[in-house]
Fold:
Amino acid sequence: MTTRLLGPLADARATARFVAKRGSSWPACRSRSSCFRELDPRACFESVDAEGDWTAPERTFATVRATGRAVLGGERVALNFLQRLSERRP
Structure:
């Protein structure tokens, strides 16, 4: 697992930003924060937009603060949920 390469930094606090590649609607789902909280109960996931709002391309729409291990371990799962549940406009 990639987080093993972090050594002592795996437990340090980290911040990650989610930036939209394309415009899409912000999905209404609890899974976006739970994948980080499973790995770090103190994880904090903050949305910039409300559920269902349109997010413009190249815009930061959420941030997560957690341990480095939780950020790296949960980011792919969170992105998969967001990609599957986001609505794209043609």
